[in-house]
Specification:
By secondary structure, the protein is of the alpha/beta class. Helices cover about 35% and strands about 15% of the residues. The chain has helices at about 5-10, 25-35, 70-75, 90-99, and strands spanning about 15-20, 40-45, 80-85. The chain has a three-stranded parallel beta sheet with strand order 1-2-3, with helices on one face.
Length: about 100
Amino acid sequence: MNPLTRSQDRSLFSNLIVLELASVLAGPAVGMFFAELGATVIKVENPAGGGDVTRSWKLPGEAAGNDISAYFASVNWGKRSIALDLTVPKGRAVVCDLV
């Protein structure tokens, strides 16, 4: 069996849509792997408190004006993002529509 080329790697999950309701590391890392393999990953964030808490986990020296930390960017690149309040019926309805 021949190893896959980079373009073949990106198409493995091109027909897959992943709904990611996770934060911090484990869930976003798995979502990142799916995105790397071509899946459409939709990250759902809670608008209360500014979304995923890791957006603000900045190292000393990171730009203060940017609302996205290097940590957040490293596990969430290649994803789409939507802010939904899952404590209200409308927010839950959107998630159900996505599923």
